[in-house]
């Protein structure tokens, strides 16, 4: 059973669009325009069929709109300049395969934070079909809001995890990143990192250099049950190294949800799609975390103008990242007299 109110909205849109086609007389309407209108009808009808009443997410809004975006923007504006005098920033790194949307997520976050009628593309992203990471340095990214406020969070953007264990992101390199051994804005040199030398390697990192939140980025089209996926294997293996009584906080982002059945025209209703909840459930089980720690997002690729729902999704994920990192920092300093770090 679908939501009656939403169904009525869809039916009204469908009938209105069909009326446009009829009123324009098909034989007098350019073929391209007819195709656009018919494609719009198909997307609306597909949305009507996919959105199900029984899909319920705890603590997630039923519908995403500009009100949700404004609420989260206000939360970010109220953040302090620093979380702790010894660890001013929440340090975050994202792990994921090549081309899964790590840098695109940063672009979407910047677009949402700036709250302008334009899409920001500050970070170099990979083509949609590629096997090579565009990120060549361990980039330190500061996030600013419209008005210049710098948020107390730093992203350290890593190259994508690929299949080549010998020259790139093996477990020793990933663990070194998490523990703060790799300097921000340095050339990412896996050989130096593994051998613990060079300009990019920090020999004696402190807690303020370490990562306070690790975000695993997985594409929605990924087959989580595929046993031979090297990226998924590395994610589980690195979890095995960092999990423990004082483990660094971990979250997951599921990208490209627009490729599994959620049209951009209906993104505001993303939490009513069973396909989205199914893949997020699979990711939660795979990474052994609760569903509320897995955030679906749709980044900007071919879009020309911002989308309120996409902005809201990115801000919701970013807020959870900030809160998790802040809790990790506070927990550390609450136990500062314990020699366990």
Please tell me about this protein's structure.
This is Interferon-induced protein 44-like isoform X2. Pfam families: MMR_HSR1 (PF01926). Strand 6 (249-255), helix 8 and strand 7 (294-296) form a beta-alpha-beta unit. Helix content is 39%, strand content 12%. With 341 residues, it is of the alpha/beta class.
Give structural attributes:
341 residues; alpha/beta; seven-stranded mixed β-sheet; 9 helices; 39% helix; globular; GTP-bd; GTP binding; Interferon-induced protein 44-like isoform X2
Strand content: 5-15%
Helix content percent band: 25-40%
Order of helices and strands: HHHEHEEHEHEHEHEH
Annotation, overall tally of beta strands: 7
Structural class: alpha/beta
Number of helices: 9
Straight-line distance between termini: 52 Å
Any low-confidence stretches, pLDDT <50, length ≥5? none
Radius of gyration: 22 Å
- What would the principal axes of the Cα set say about the shape? globular
Sheet having the most strands? 7 strands, mixed
Major sheet: order of its strands?
A: 4-2-3-1-5-6-7
Mean pLDDT: 82
Q: Layout of SSEs?
A:
Blueprint: H1 4-23, H2 31-50, H3 66-77, E1 90-96, H4 102-114, E2 137-144, E3 150-157, H5 171-178, E4 186-187, H6 190-195, E5 213-219, H7 230-242, E6 249-255, H8 274-287, E7 294-296, H9 308-334
Parallel strand pairs: 1-3, 1-5, 5-6, 6-7
Antiparallel strand pairs: 2-3, 2-4
Helix pairs in contact: 1-2, 3-9, 4-9
Organism: Crassostrea virginica (Eastern oyster)
Domain G: 92-235
Pfam family, one: MMR_HSR1
């Amino acid at each position: 059973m679908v939501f009656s109110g939403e169904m009525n909205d869809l039916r009204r849109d469908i009938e209105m669009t069909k009326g446009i086609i009829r009123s324009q007389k098909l034989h007098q309407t350019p073929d391209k325009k007819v195709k656009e209108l018919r494609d719009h009808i198909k997307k609306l009808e597909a949305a009507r069929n996919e959105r199900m009443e029984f899909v319920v997410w705890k603590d997630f809004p039923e519908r995403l709109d500009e009100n949700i975006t404004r609420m989260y923007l206000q939360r970010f504006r109220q953040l302090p300049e620093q979380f702790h005098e010894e660890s001013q920033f929440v340090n975050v790194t994202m792990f994921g395969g090549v081309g899964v949307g790590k840098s695109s997520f940063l672009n979407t976050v910047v677009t949402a934070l700036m709250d302008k009628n334009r899409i920001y593309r500050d970070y170099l992203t990979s083509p949609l079909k590629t096997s090579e990471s565009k990120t060549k340095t361990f980039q330190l990214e500061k996030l600013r809001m419209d008005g210049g406020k710098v948020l107390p969070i730093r992203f350290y953007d890593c190259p994508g995890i690929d299949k080549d264990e010998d020259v790139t992101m093996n477990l020793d390199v990933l663990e070194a990143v998490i523990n703060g051994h790799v300097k921000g804005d340095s050339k990412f040199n896996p050989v130096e990192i593994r051998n613990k030398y060079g300009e990019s390697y920090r020999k004696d990192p402190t807690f303020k250099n370490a990562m306070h939140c690790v975000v695993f980025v997985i594409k929605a089209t990924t087959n989580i049950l595929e046993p031979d996926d090297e990226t998924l294997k590395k994610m589980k293996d690195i979890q095995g190294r960092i999990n423990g009584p004082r483990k660094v906080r971990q979250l997951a982002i599921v990208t490209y949800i627009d490729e599994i059945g959620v049209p951009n025209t209906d993104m505001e209703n993303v939490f009513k799609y069973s396909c989205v909840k199914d893949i997020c459930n699979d990711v939660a089980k795979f990474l052994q975390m609760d569903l509320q720690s897995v955030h679906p997002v749709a980044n900007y690729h071919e879009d020309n103008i911002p989308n309120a729902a996409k902005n809201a999704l990115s801000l919701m994920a970013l807020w959870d990242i900030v809160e998790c990192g802040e809790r990790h920092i506070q927990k550390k300093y609450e136990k500062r007299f314990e020699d366990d770090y």
